[in-house]
Amino acid sequence: xxxDSPMTANIYLPALPTLVDEFHTTTExxxxxxxxxxxFQGASPLxxxxxxxxxxxxxxxxxCLALLAVSCVGLxxxxxxxxxxxFLLPFGVLLDVAAPHERGMFFGVGNVAPMLGxxxxxxxxxxxxxxxxxxxxxxxxxLCILSxxxxxxxxxxxxxxxxxxxxxxxxxxxxMLKTPISVVGNSxxxxxxxxxxxxQMHNPFRLFLQFDxxxxxxxxxxxxxVFYGVTASLSTIFEDHYPYLDDTTTGLCFLAIGGGMVxxxxxxxxxxxxxxxRVKEKMKRRAEEDGSVFDEGAFPFERARIRLVPYITVTYTxxxxxxxxxxxxxxxxxxxxxxxxxxxxxxxxxMSSISTLLVDLLPGQGSSITACNNFVRCSLGAVMVSVIxxxxxxxxxxxxxxxxxxxxxxFGVPCFxxxxxxxxxxxxxxxxxxx
Length: 435
Hints:
Layout: H1 4-10, H2 16-22, H3 27-55, H4 57-76, H5 100-110, H6 112-132, H7 139-157, H8 163-166, H9 180-185, H10 211-241, H11 247-290, H12 301-305, H13 309-328, H14 334-361, H15 366-432
């Protein structure tokens, strides 16, 4: 289920050169469709996230999948006219919660399914575009059927998981949030749900007022923007520099970056869990030596989550720059594919670390902070997609990625220093004055 969202975004990318020909327009104009998509992808979780934190995951999942299916029907029926850019693909966001000591691996394994979207989405999209054309019978009908099937599966089988509603699973949810299977099957009796206290809707925008959180969001957003600049432009520049590739083989090239993303998220999950245990054991030993009590609330999550981020930032930047120059100099296709793998691996490792840290900093507000993270990333990604082709035309592919890589380093190093220095202060303030 979690692969639907990234597949929706990435199934479209191999068809971009075909769309330029189909609509007799320019790459810059076609890229605006991706920009519009990213804008709404970033904004919609600010609405859906707080709702899911208050009214449950199951209801929001079903609503988002149904809305996606209906949107794909509209897109599939669009004629080749000037109105086609007005239709958008909305979807929701879900973040499950795990204990801090297992959260790194949880995020790693949980992110494998979303990483499959960038791997298999472009392959499906390229194959459908080559065989059936970009229009109704291909991309959007496929997405409509897929999201419709997932909506039915969620409605029938997915139980409510929001702890505020079901606790640890021992509390029965309200009747409207039960699955039809559990109602018909009259499953094991559970504790009745206590009377609801008045639910307070969280305002995600207030999280932007936390300086350390804002710095992390901007840092993560810039890395994502560069990453999306790579993926969104891949089909166009590969067609220009390797003209023997068709839509299907271009889609296969996305396997390189998708495979790197899977490796990166799983590996970084294990590393974060190991670092968490190491830091916790060190703090416990120090507390025993001082004769004090170990304080879980003062745990320095930044040391357990982003210790490797400076090194990953450098390797990620080097991989992106090397990829750009390989394309610019028309070297053998294997070279840019190798660097695409490393771009996927290091970008996902870095973004997973920061995303996990953000959730650790604001317990109980997982969907809200994820919505803010998504908003910043997609907003900056939208800006990147809208200007990337202009940069290619002005200074070339190699210098474009050199500029973008320099931006990652120039902004990333100060951000890391600020976070490591200031986060203990802001963590203490949030403990004294909870949000």
